[in-house]
Amino acid sequence: MRKAPLILALFLFTSITVSAQSVEEIVSHYLKSIGGIDKIHAVKTLRRTGKFIGGGGFEAVVQRENKRGNSVREEFSLQGMTAINAYDGTTAWKIQPWNGKKDAESLGEEEMKSILEDADFDGPLVDYQKKGYKIEFAGKDKFEGTETVKLKITNPNGDIYVWHMDTDYYVPIKIDLTRFVRGEERQYETVLGDYKEVAGWFMPFSIETNVKGRPEKSKIVFATIQANVEIDDARFKMPTTATVPKKD
Length: 248
Known about the structure:
There is one protein chain. This protein has helices at residues 3-33, 37-42, 109-119, 128-131, and strands spanning 45-53, 59-67, 71-78, 81-87, 92-95, 105-106, 134-143, 146-154, 160-166, 172-181, 184-198, 201-211, 218-227. The chain has 248 residues and is an alpha+beta fold. It has a single domain, classed as Clam (outer membrane lipoprotein receptor (LolB), chain A), CATH 2.50.20.10.
C-alpha cells in the first residue's frame, strides 16, 4: 500500500515530462515549417493589403502594417472613408469616420486586447517563454477531415487560444479564442488558409472569423504581403488633430 503514492507520483511526473516534450516538439516543427527562426527574425516590417468580405458579399479594402517593437496599424476603407486602429507600442487609438467622426480616440477594452494580439509581430509561439505565454498540449482532433494536434495557449492577459495544427506541416488551420472582457467570456473561431512564402516566412493569406455558435462569418483575403518595406514610425502615433484619410 505504501508504494501506491510513489507509483502515482512517478506516473504524474512522467505524464508532465511527456507533455512538456510534446509541446517543444510541436513548436519546433511549427517554426521549421514556417521558415525557421532566423528567417522570421530577419523580417522587420510587414504590409498586408487585401479585402474584407462580410455577410451578403459586402466588401471593403483593408491594410495592415506591422513593425517590430509591437507597432501595428490597421485600415478599413469603404465609400471613400478609412477607419484606423493603431498601436505604437505604448498608446492604442482609433479613428472611426462614420457619422462625421474625425478625431482619434482611445480603444475600448476588447479592442485593446485585439490590437495587442495583432501587434505581436511573430505570433505567440515565437519566443513564447520571453513573452510570458503558457503553452500546453491539448490532444488530437480533426478539422474538416484533416488530422490535427492542439495546443492550448494562455496569454498573460488571461485570454486562451486553442491552435488546431495540421499534422503534416504543423501550422494552425483553426484557432479557437476565449476572450475575457470585464469578467464576461466571449468566444470566437478563426480559420486560416492559403499559406504562401513571404521573405522565406510562410503566412496565411486567408483568415475567416466568426463568433462561436453563430453562422455569420467575415473573411479577410490578402492579395499581397510585403516584407521589410519602409514604414515611418509616425504611422503608428496617435494624431493630435486627425485628418480622416480618404480612399483613392
